[in-house]
Design brief:
By secondary structure, the protein is of the alpha/beta class. It has eleven helices and twelve strands. It has helices spanning 9-20, 23-30, 34-48, 64-84, 105-122, 141-146, 188-193, 206-213, 230-234, 245-251, 283-302, and strands at 53-56, 59-62, 97-102, 126-131, 150-154, 163-169, 171-176, 195-199, 219-224, 240-244, 257-260, 269-274. The chain is elongated, with a radius of gyration of 24 Å.
Length: 309
């Protein structure tokens, strides 16, 4: 494919046509007349050798190829938008821009809130948008990172992309304050016999894989797509949950639970910010990474991860 022969404006037209499925509305969306958008559709049909939009009754539907291109075009559009938004200089005090960060509710609660506070103070025109990691993160990391500004994720989940370390955390267990069979410590036998509440993502940390290596197979009674819900689902039950110490410190005042140390030497959690190489030399992104790293250092210098009471 010779990209020099392609009109990249067609990416804009293609996205509008596939999403609107109507030539007139697509033209209005991108500021083109109906004849101009019809001409763009004709060029796209010749390029792909496919109708893309097929008339069915009084409306258009996507062809099989059009359906395939729907998601790919949105991704390509985001990549191009970020590429041409790159800057040689960036003044955080005067710029207006949104950064999109993919992060679990744990990372937002423990780190994102502090990052947002610093950005609010130092760069009032900058907006942060946090979104949950999709389940496909491990399978299609490159595509995911190409359409966002950063991914907050511990080491051991993704690799082969640039990253900056943020802070360290450790794993602890939660049990109910009034748990009938657990006093001041857990045993490995407790981990095997007691029901669990777990974070349901499949990539939720090397700590879970470590349990399997120790011969512990959690008996999962409840799974949930939120770390912050774990204490509420442990309180008043016989369940246990594995949770990050920093988050446990924030959440235990909200639920009748106790924090206990693992009955083994748990692997540490090293949170990092990962990004696509296309962002490496962008001035705005450099500022974002340096600010995130500074917030992470402040977290480490201000206090270590909380110890259980």
């Amino acid at each position: 494919m010779n990209l020099s022969r392609l009109d990249l404006n067609l990416v804009v037209a293609l996205r509008a046509l596939l999403e609107e499925r109507n030539v007139t509305r697509a033209g209005q969306r991108v500021g083109l007349s109906q004849p101009a958008m019809s001409a763009a559709l004709a060029r796209l049909r010749r390029h792909f050798d496919d109708d893309l939009l097929a008339r069915v009754g009084g409306h258009y539907e996507l062809t099989a190829l059009g359906q395939v291109l729907l998601d790919r075009t949105a991704t390509a559009y985001d990549v191009l938008e970020r590429l041409f938004a790159s800057q040689a200089d960036f003044d955080p005090a005067s710029e207006s821009r949104e950064f999109k960060l993919i992060a679990s509710d744990y990372a937002v609660a423990v780190f994102g809130t502090e990052l947002a506070r610093v950005v609010h103070e130092e760069a009032p025109g900058i907006r942060l948008r946090f979104t949950q990691p999709p389940t496909t993160i491990v399978d299609d990391t490159a595509t995911l990172l190409s359409t966002t500004d950063g991914l907050l994720m511990p080491h051991g989940v993704v690799s082969d992309f640039p990253a900056t370390d943020l802070y360290q955390d450790r794993w602890v267990f939660l049990v109910a304050d009034d748990h009938p069979s657990v006093e001041d410590r857990l045993t490995r036998q407790d981990l095997a016999r007691l029901p669990w509440v777990t974070y349901q993502r499949t990539y939720d940390a090397p700590a879970v894989r470590q349990l399997g290596m120790l011969g512990v197979e959690p008996r999962v009674e409840v799974s949930v797509d939120s770390f912050q819900l774990l204490p509420l689902l442990v309180a008043g039950t016989r369940r246990i949950a594995l949770i990050q110490a920093r988050l446990a410190h924030l959440m235990t005042p909200l639920a009748a639970v106790r924090v206990l140390e693992p009955p083994y030497e748990a692997v540490p959690l090293r949170e990092a910010m990962w990004w696509h190489p296309v962002h490496t030399h962008d001035a705005a992104h450099i500022w974002l990474r340096e600010t995130a790293a500074r917030v992470g250092r402040r977290m480490a210098d201000g206090h270590d991860t909380p110890q259980p009471s």
